[in-house]
Specification:
alpha/beta, six-stranded mixed β-sheet, two-stranded antiparallel ribbon, 21 helices, 8 strands
């Protein structure tokens, strides 16, 4: 179910701020009017820069929270901490507060506040879910602007809104305050958030790496260089380079946009760009390509140089995977990164990334290209193998190494045998004796309607059989990695006419052919 992106409604801020203490008395509660965009209280609200995205609630949950508030039902207290600079940080309750802010300011991840955060370029998928949320809230609760009208012009609104509007002035949400310095506030945040919905271990690493090159680089890529500027303490020149690199990598990962059910092979290599999993995917990717084994090995980046280095390495490998850069193998996502039902396979993505890095380090990309057609046909036919490896090792982190090894063994077998013998020998390898050479037949549906998975599988199977192929290696070409090759080279007199043009992967065109 689609989640609503409310992240921009509470600005992020570093805990480390102005050293001038504030002695003002703290509020014991806040009312609905305190959350208007131009209110003093709202303008001082912040969330820690390391806090996870406020994008975990569905439209139904947001509507339910607003309804609970209007009817005076119990809403858990919001926990705040006041910084020395006077900002009020939301330690616990950002989704609750953001849902009310969304209703009051008519911004469900697609309004004026959010647009300012995205420099006016809010992604289409966020606009769509925002509009659905708005319609649901207006149907079940009504517009905030109608409640404002109710007392002055009651004839313009329903009787129910008239009744509820009279109560809004006296309804408030209780506040609790964390006392102490920034270290106490940070410790409180982690303690509270680990007690309720536990933070994923990888997400926790991302949070704690917020001042390190891998953390800053990951956050920059996730938002395509937009949103909260985690790198704004660096020089203007370096900040600009970080934004440019991050935007380029983001596009290579998440464009074209993924839609379900799948009706095109123009799939993004990284899956959905705005999901709860995309930050974790990017963070693990940045660590993988930069060979970060132990988080403690990465120092805080005070200049921006390390962040730029991490981003350049991330771009180099993303270019290798799928782009129009001359080094690109142009791997087709439908072959390597998606199941037959259109589900993005995160473990396979990392296994293939490590596979390519090893091939590049051992200077075996040409060798791979020579065997690529047969290799990919077997990867499609036996696409269930990675799932078997994943089930056997029971975790993605443990399975990835074995998935990579399977591909390396298969590639070597292809060089010495025909395809049938190659896959048979690979399955007999001592490390893969637990694998089965066939997949279980799926159970027949008990309903007459086709599921999205069935629709996607039907399309992908048919489309892969007739996909456009590289005229040099005869493997499938993806829309993000199409180049036009001269059949007869320019240096040998080849002309630029249609009869001398052919489609090719960038690497096949610029390196392998030559």
């Amino acid at each position: 179910m689609a989640k609503v992106a409310l992240d921009a409604l509470l600005p992020r801020e570093d805990f480390d701020g102005d050293e001038t203490p504030s002695s003002a008395k703290k509020k014991e509660s806040f009312s609905i009017s305190d959350l208007r965009e131009d209110d003093f209280f709202y303008l001082t609200l912040r969330k820690p820069d390391f806090q996870r995205e406020t994008n975990e609630w569905t439209p139904q949950k947001i509507s339910g929270l607003v309804k609970s508030f209007i009817y005076g039902e119990l809403i858990p207290a919001v926990i705040l901490w006041r910084s020395k600079s006077g900002y009020n940080f939301v330690i616990d309750g950002s989704h609750r507060v953001s849902s009310l802010i969304a209703w009051i300011n008519d911004d469900y991840g697609d309004g004026a506040i959010t647009k300012q955060s995205f420099n006016g370029m809010v992604p289409e998928e966020l606009i769509q879910v925002g509009d659905r949320t708005r319609k649901l809230v207006e149907k079940e609760v009504g517009k905030y602007s109608d409640y404002q009208l109710a007392l002055k012009f009651p004839e313009r609104v329903s009787e129910e809104i008239q009744r509820n509007a009279k109560n809004l002035g006296s309804i408030a949400v209780q506040l609790q305050w964390v006392e102490g310095d920034a270290d106490v506030a940070e410790a409180s945040f982690f303690k509270i958030n680990q007690q309720a919905a536990k933070i994923d271990p990888t997400e926790l690493k991302l949070i704690k790496s917020r001042k390190k090159a891998n953390g800053i680089a990951s956050r920059a890529i996730i938002k395509g260089g937009k949103g909260h500027q985690y790198w704004d303490k660096f020089s203007e020149e370096k900040s600009k380079e970080i934004k440019t690199l991050a935007e380029e990598i983001n596009k290579s990962f998440f464009l074209p946009k993924l839609k379900s059910p799948v009706k095109t092979l123009d799939l993004p290599i990284g899956g959905k760009g705005y999901s709860s999993q995309s930050p974790l995917l990017i963070f693990e990717y940045v660590n993988t390509v930069n060979a970060v084994g132990n988080e403690e090995e990465v120092e805080n980046d005070t200049s921006g140089d390390e962040t730029i280095r991490f981003l350049k390495k991330a771009r180099k490998i993303s270019n290798l995977i799928n782009s129009t850069h001359p080094s690109s193998l142009g791997l087709h996502p439908a072959v390597y990164f998606y199941s037959k039902t259109g589900r993005h396979k995160t473990a396979s993505f990392f296994a293939v990334t490590e596979f390519l890095i090893e091939l590049e380090n051992k200077k075996k990309l040409k060798y791979f290209t020579e065997k690529r057609e047969i290799f990919e046909e077997l990867m499609i036919e036996y696409d269930f193998i990675n799932q078997q490896i994943l089930r056997h090792y029971r975790s993605s982190s443990k399975a990835v190494t074995h998935m990579k090894k399977f591909m390396l063994v298969l590639l070597d077998e292809i060089s010495n045998n025909d395809r049938e013998v190659a896959i048979k020998n690979t399955l007999k390898h001592e490390d893969f004796k637990f694998l089965k050479s066939s997949e279980n037949t799926p159970e027949e549906s008990e309903t007459q309607d086709f599921s999205e998975a069935v629709k996607s599988a039907t399309f992908i199977t048919e489309a892969l059989s007739s996909a456009i192929r590289c005229k040099i290696c005869n493997s499938r070409i993806h829309v993000n990695s199409i180049t036009i090759d001269h059949k007869d080279r320019k240096q040998e007199g080849g002309l630029g006419g249609h009869t001398n043009a052919q489609l090719a992967h960038p690497y096949c065109n610029s390196t392998y052919k030559n």
